[in-house]
Write a structure and sequence with these properties.
elongated, Tetrahydropterin Synthase, Chain A, alpha+beta, 303 residues, three-stranded antiparallel beta sheet
């Protein structure tokens, strides 16, 4: 019996040592778990919201490594980058035409100065369902109803800008900044779209004819203007010639000697030659033709 006691003591000591190691391992593991659960990271483009037993104790935790009380505090991450909401709906135009498939897209982000109120009073996860969707659908349907179907097709950009302005003004009051709104598709019934296309083609053809008529009228007008200009030019030229003649005549009446002066200026210094003593004397004006004149005179005398 005495020999078995040391063996039992050794076994008991070994068992106690194993238990201590197990306990130590469990403690280490728990410490590691607690250590890891007390740290967290926040990525760029996000902020952290810390809760302690369900109550918000911080709503502006910045990107990077942060700490919290394990098992007591929890942290949720809020995406503060630009958000995109896409959807589609149906609507009615002013003339009761049905827009069967109205697809649109809204871009927005949170106003940092009001983000805390949004987180605490609305909840980031409820922003679209409680704020964006109800207001956007109401404004889109109301704005579409302000235009006739044909006007909606022709003024799509105007409608889009009107919706963007109104939804931006409405959501800004709740801390949401709208950056863009786009009507990506406006789909009417097939029959109506065909009718609109046919009307547009007819109007374009009529406009071409109208422009052609205006072009023809303008060409005719330019022709008339050119003819009137030419007639006026001829009239002015004729009046100028008449005036010149009148001036010359007045000068001659005032100075009769002026004509004689012009004759003297043009005289070559030779006197005319008169031949023959008959009723019809022959006058030779220059020496070059004197021989021919004399021969003609001789022939007349012989006859």
């Amino acid at each position: 019996m005495s020999e078995n006691r040391p063996i039992d003591l050794d076994r008991k000591r070994q068992g106690n040592a194993i238990k201590r190691w197990i306990v130590l391992a469990i403690v280490v593991i728990l410490l590691l778990i607690l250590g890891f659960s007390s740290t967290y990271t926040i990525s760029e483009g996000y902020i952290g919201v810390k809760y302690r037993f369900g109550k918000i104790v911080a709503d502006d935790l910045q990107p990077g490594l942060n700490f919290k009380l394990p098992l007591v505090e929890t942290v949720s991450r809020v995406d503060i980058r630009e958000q995109i909401y896409e959807s589609s709906t149906s609507a009615y135009t002013k003339d009761t035409q049905t827009v069967e498939n109205l697809q649109f897209k809204l871009n927005y982000y949170y106003d940092q100065s009001q983000l805390s109120d949004i987180i605490r009073n609305i909840g980031i996860g409820n922003v679209e369902s409680k704020l964006v969707i109800p207001q956007l659908m109401s404004i889109v349907k109301n704005e579409i109803g302000q235009f006739r179907a044909e006007e909606l097709i022709q003024n799509r950009t105007v409608v889009q800008e009107n919706i963007e302005d109104k939804i931006g003004e409405s959501l800004q009051q709740n801390g949401i900044i709208v950056t863009a709104f786009a009507l990506e598709n406006v789909d009417f019934e097939d029959g109506f779209e065909e009718a609109v296309r046919a009307k547009v083609v007819a109007e374009q053809d009529a406009l071409k004819m109208q422009n052609k008529t205006k072009e023809t009228e303008e060409l005719a007008r330019q022709t008339v203007i050119q003819a009137e200009a030419e007639a006026e030019s001829q009239k002015i030229e004729a009046e100028a010639q008449a005036y010149n003649i009148q001036v010359i005549q007045e000068q001659l009446n005032a100075s009769p000697q002026y004509l004689e002066y012009q004759k003297i200026q043009k005289w070559n210094g030779q006197f005319p030659q008169v031949m023959g003593d008959g009723v019809n004397p022959f006058v030779v004006l220059d020496g070059a033709d004197s021989n021919q004149s004399q021969q003609s005179a001789v022939q007349q005398d012989e006859n």
